[in-house]
Amino acid sequence: MRTLVLALCALLLQAGNAAAARIEIPLRVSLDMLREAFNAQLAGYRDGPCRYLRLKPAALESRDGHLHLSIPGNGSLGIALAGKCQSAAAWQGNVQFTLAPRIDEAGRVRVTIVDSRASGMAPALWEAGKRHLHPRLERFSYDLGASREALAGLLRGAVPPAHAAAMDLALQRLEVMKPQVESTHVVIPVGLQVPDAWLAAVQPSAAAGASAPLTEAELEALEKALEPWDAFLVTIVRQIATDGEDEALRRRLFTLLLDSRYRLSSVLSGDEPAQGDPLRALFLETWSDLRTILLEAQRAGTLPPSLLRYALFIDAGDALAAVESAAPGLQLSAEGLRQLARSL
Q1: pTM of the prediction?
Q2: Under 8 Å between Cβ of 26 and 321
Q3: Where are the domains of the chain?
């Protein structure tokens, strides 16, 4: 994704004499993926036949900027005498936690317990339960390695050989910042410092409008420049439609594809002036609609929210859109679109 790398460098030109520029790339972890991680790492306990806590699969949702974890289960707190449980405090209900996500020194997602309670549980049983559950929650972790390495790999593979060492150094200094809880995801911004040594690699093109009809050669060049966008969108629409297997989702995707092709025809016919880089304009205009379709399909269950490759695809597309928006004179390359398609 050479375009992504060059766009990062182009941000320096807007900063005047600043020594370096900084860009933030969002990494998203769906609540469904976190819930699966909680279920895999949390368990009840048993200390004989009369002292136990059984947990069922948890539910996880966003509330007021925090994570709300609710775990149904049942338990007992008593003493075994003569083969029977004496003075047993029985319980069946839900234990609930309010959690704040954080990033540890290794770049993994962990949680801080803001509040905890249990519905209908005797205080003595809950005190015993907390001594077991709180340490387990404090040991919980979710590895961001796959998402982080995927984005780093795109950047590392796209940089020109002359700047490979500078890119490696920048990626070593990648900063994972404070998580933010949204309705369906936890968003972790990743900061990348762009060294001023890359300034010389950037030659942004000036955006100029077409004041006269295109010549045959210009029209042929424009058509060739727009071909990668149509190929990209067809590939992505086909993949999403295959994964979704939902008629309403497929209709929305087909409409998006038709709208894009009407726009292509309008540019090629001269009805719409091809100002600046039309490929970049098409990407920025369509990406917002495409990501909305993806996120709504995941919320509706027509696309599995837990598919990591969709999270990576959306993160990569958002990163590319962010740098393209920040560097309006930079042309979007076909290689950038190919790299984005590969992330899905």
Answers
A1: 0.66
A2: no
A3: 2-24+149-168+197-205+216-343, 43-74+90-139
